[in-house]
Amino acid sequence: MSNLKQELKENIIELLNLEEFSVEDINDNDALFGDGLGLDSIDALELMVMLDKDYGIKLTDPKEGKEIFQSIAVLAEYIEKNRTK
């Protein structure tokens, strides 16, 4: 699971051009939206595309995304249980 969390941090930094962050700056339990990384709804759409492309997970319900994108830890746990790639 720690490899997946590391991978997610790297992918999110690259995908969303978060050049001000390094992998070490992101705690597994930091909020991705709001006070944490400060992501917004456009970023959420990009994360949904990443889930589909990289892990074979299609999210259709925005409420589901809100729960899954709470933190790296929550996201990694969801991917472990639902990935098809």
Please, could you describe this protein's structure?
The chain is mostly helical. It has one domain: Non-ribosomal Peptide Synthetase Peptidyl Carrier Protein, Chain A, CATH 1.10.1200.10. About 55% of the residues lie in helices and about 0% in strands. It has four helices and no strands.
In terms of structural class, how would the helical and strand content be classed? mainly alpha
Radius of gyration: 12 Å
Overall pLDDT confidence? 92
Total domain modules: 1
Superfamily (CATH H level) name = ACP-like
Largest sheet: none
Tally of DSSP β-strands? 0
* Helix/strand order: HHHH
CATH topology: Non-ribosomal Peptide Synthetase Peptidyl Carrier Protein, Chain A
Q: Could you give the distance between the termini?
A: 15 Å
CATH architecture: Orthogonal Bundle
Helix percent reads: 55-70%
Low-confidence stretches: none
Q: In the CATH hierarchy, what is the class?
A: Mainly Alpha
Shape: globular
Strand content is under 5%
Question: Count of helical segments?
Answer: 4
Comma- or semicolon-separated keywords:
single chain, 85 residues, mainly alpha, Non-ribosomal Peptide Synthetase Peptidyl Carrier Protein, Chain A, 0% strand, globular, PP-bd_ACP, ACP-like_sf, Acyl carrier protein
List the helices and strands and how they pair.
Blueprint (H helix, E strand, L loop, with lengths): L1 H14 L25 H15 L6 H7 L3 H11 L3
